[in-house]
Amino acid sequence: MTNHTSILNGINNFVSVKFFYLLWLSLLVSFSTFAQKNQAWEEIQRLLSAQEKAWNEGNIEVFMQGYWKSDSLKFIGKNGVTQGWKSTYERYLKTYPDRATMGTLKFDIVHHEQMDKKVYFVIGKWHLKRSEDKGDIGGFFSLIFRKIKGKWLIVVDHTS
Fold first, then answer.
1. Which is nearest to 107 in space by CA: 50, 39, 69?
2. Contact call for residues 107 and 128 (beta carbons, < 8 A)
3. How far from the centroid of its chain's Cα atoms is residue 106's Cα?
């Protein structure tokens, strides 16, 4: 009986060690995934803050650094789809020709979700505080970010 009990204790110890190892491994993987998602969101928040700052300084060119500098960039607005970084930049310059028209930009995030390791989806509100003669304006946006060459960049912007 002593040998039988000793064998059972050995098996139980092995199973217990294996169970705790698997539990520890799954917790480690979960934490790692959470940390990656948290880091992605922090990087995107920094990008959006930098865009607000650039806009509020009247610097559309720096504002555009948050966008993918590619002919495949898509901007969807009330006048339809604008294709490409250069066309989007030119659209901003035409729509907001001076500081008074640009006003002061404020983003408020409504929802954000990492779709996979290299794709992030953000929904938010935008508001331009402008002089009384120009009037405040605002609306909603949805952005698709992709991690390209180690940087999160906007690849699709739908703003209304």
1. 50
2. no
3. 16
Along the chain (160 residues), what's the average pLDDT of each consecutive run of 10 residues? 69 63 47 63 99 99 99 97 99 98 99 98 99 97 98 98
Q: Which residues of 42-59 are buried (b: 16+ CB within 10 A; e: fewer)?
A: ebbeebbeebbebbbeee
Task: Report the C-alpha gap between 68 and 144 in whole angstroms.
Answer: 11
Give the end-to-end CA distance of the chain in Å, rounded to a whole number. Answer: 78
d(CA 101, CA 90) in angstroms, rounded, equals 15
Local structure of 29: helix, strand or coil: helix
The neighbouring-strand residues paired with 75 are: 82, 157
Backbone φ and ψ for 91, nearest 5 degrees, come out as: -65, -45
Domains detected in the chain: 2-159 (3.10.450.50)
In whole angstroms, what separates CA 26 from the centre of its chain? Answer: 26
Read off φ and ψ for residue 119, nearest 5 degrees: -135, 135
DSSP string, 54-72: HHHTT-HHHHGGGB--STT
Element (H, E) at 160: none
